[in-house]
Design goal:
With 452 residues, the protein is α/β, with parallel strands linked by helices. It has three domains: 3-62 and 98-177 and 271-339, FAD/NAD(P)-binding domain, CATH 3.50.50.60; 180-269, 2-Layer Sandwich (D-Amino Acid Oxidase, Chain A, domain 2), CATH 3.30.9; 343-450, no CATH class. Helix content is 35%, strand content 25%. It binds flavin-adenine dinucleotide.
């Protein structure tokens, strides 16, 4: 049986960064994916990536086939389309990627550093011994079962979390993600008859009639191509995303005579990070650990970040000769200190958005209760500041919408509370259970107060 320091299950953006980081440090790494090599990177996605993520990770800007279009920011349309927030700032400069080629670009980086790619191989189950994950059982495309031994297994299998779902309860890792914390998405890449007028910004359209709890996006890809789709919160009797897309998005004049290049559906987990992402001999990264921005659903950046942090932590743990939960714990802390606390506080804002109706959002955006600057600040992980002027207060009182104002105020306070709570993320597993219970209580409270 072949032995590795680490087996990374899934060669997406998270897995490639984890494999690259560990291989670079000299570990013997197997990077496994169910897809054949040439299909790695292909994904139903909006394909948008903020430049700041690459800068943070020390990765160069995409410049070749992996880059389809450089963008200057985002435009957010209110449900009645009367208000448009244009969020253009150096931190919102980004790229619309050719997702397959971007994936291939990352894969090459991992393989060039020495990670061994095992493609067309499907993970089946973890090998568990005395409370530790000690390897994986997988199946090759030829139908052959293989078993690999490994000091650490990384679950980077994306939304399906194929390793996570088979871990024992004693590892204190949530195995299931609630439907209401997931967006069901449908997306198409289309060739338009002519280039849209706006190709500088990514466009986001809010509105509960079309995309309840989510939004519609139209992102320019260059060469009169667009990436367009919608995400819907899987809460209650939610509508079918593809049907909504065909009835409400493709009927826009810009799509007349357009050609379908690629279409499909997938899920995006938009809640706070899993409260704990490590167990004895196992680490969860990317979508498998629910590491997506709750507001815009972007997960390429955080998944790469998590892969990088996980890789670093595993290297340190193995240098000290121990990969139990305590030795791997600092990965939780690293991720939460950088992106996780922002993600968690934005999850509160997501709950507020789900609970708000279209009219409230129209007024809220129209009267700039939250300004473009605030959205920008919040997106960068800073505090929201409310801008409730006397005029706005009068209008909202007159329209009997004070409940909305109060909920917005409450949201901002709870976001602060959550950030402070994440600042106190436990240093070791011993105090985790108490922290976890407080976390669950905070989010249950937010749902009870904001969704009533
Ligand atoms: C419709 C949609 C639009 C999105 N738009 C954006 C966007 O514009 N910008 C953005 O930043 N994020 C976006 N996201 C989120 C983003 O796509 C993910 O957060 C990101 O791809 C997560 O990367 P990952 O490496 O964790 O998982 P993935 O990219 O899903 O990679 C998982 C890998 O694991 C492999 N795998 C799965 N099961 C097995 C198995 N049993 N054995 C072996 N291998 C396995 C898969 O083949 C795959 O290669 C969007 C998501 C959706 C659904």
């Amino acid at each position: 049986m072949e032995k590795f320091d680490a087996v990374v299950v899934g060669a997406g953006t998270a897995g490639c960064l984890a494999a690259k980081t560990m291989a670079e440090a000299g570990l013997k790494v197997c990077l496994m994916d169910r897809k054949p090599k040439e299909e790695i990177g292909e994904k139903i996605c909006g394909d948008a990536l903020g430049e700041h993520h690459l800068k943070f990770l020390g990765l160069e800007k995409p410049h070749s086939g992996e880059l389809e279009k450089r963008i200057e920011g985002v435009q957010i349309y209110s449900p009645d389309k009367k208000t448009i927030f244009t969020i253009a700032d150096k931190d919102f400069i980004g790229y619309i990627l050719n997702r397959r080629l971007f994936g291939q670009w990352l894969l090459k980086k991992a393989v060039d550093k020495g990670a061994m790619l095992m493609d067309s191989t499907r993970f089946l189950e973890p090998v568990l011994e005395k409370g530790f994950v000690t390897g994986v059982v997988a199946k090759t495309s030829a139908g052959k079962k293989v078993q690999l031994q490994s000091k650490v297994v990384v679950d980077s299998s994306g939304f399906m979390g194929v390793v996570r779902r088979k871990l024992p309860e004693s590892m204190q890792i949530e195995r299931e993600i609630a439907n209401e914390d997931v967006e069901a998405c449908y997306r198409e890449i289309r060739q338009l008859k002519q280039e849209n007028e706006n190709t500088r910004y990514c466009e986001i359209y809010l509105g509960g009639k079309v995309a309840p709890g989510g939004y519609v996006w139209i992102f320019p890809k260059g060469g009169a191509k667009v990436n367009a789709g919608l995400g819907i919160c899987m809460r209650g009797n939610f509508p079918n995303p593809k049907k909504q897309f065909y009835e409400h998005v493709l009927t826009k004049p810009q799509f007349e005579g357009s050609l379908l290049l690629n279409g499909g559906a997938w899920w995006d987990p938009t809640r706070r990070p899993l409260d704990n992402m490590v167990g004895n001999g196992v680490v969860l990264v990317g979508d498998a650990a629910s590491l997506v921005n709750p507001i815009h659903g972007g997960g390429i950046g955080p998944s790469m970040l998590s892969g990088y942090f996980a890789g670093q932590t595993i290297v340190e743990a193995l240098e000290n000769g121990n990969a139990d939960q305590s030795a791997l714990w600092s990965y939780n802390k690293r991720y939460n200190d950088t992106y996780g606390k922002k993600q968690a506080s934005l999850d509160i804002f997501r709950i507020f958005l789900i609970a708000s109706n279209d009219e409230d959002l129209d007024y809220g955006m129209g009267y700039k209760l939250v300004t473009e600057q605030d959205v920008l600040r919040a997106a960068m992980g800073e505090d929201f500041r409310l801008n409730i002027t006397e005029t706005a207060r009068r209008v909202f009182r007159g329209r009997k919408r004070m409940g909305f104002l109060n909920k917005l105020r409450l949201t901002v306070n709870m976001m602060r509370q959550v950030r402070a709570h994440y600042d106190a993320y436990p240093e070791t597993p011993e105090t985790f259970e108490k922290w976890r219970q407080q976390t669950v209580a905070l989010f249950s409270q937010a749902k009870a107060k904001l969704m009533k």
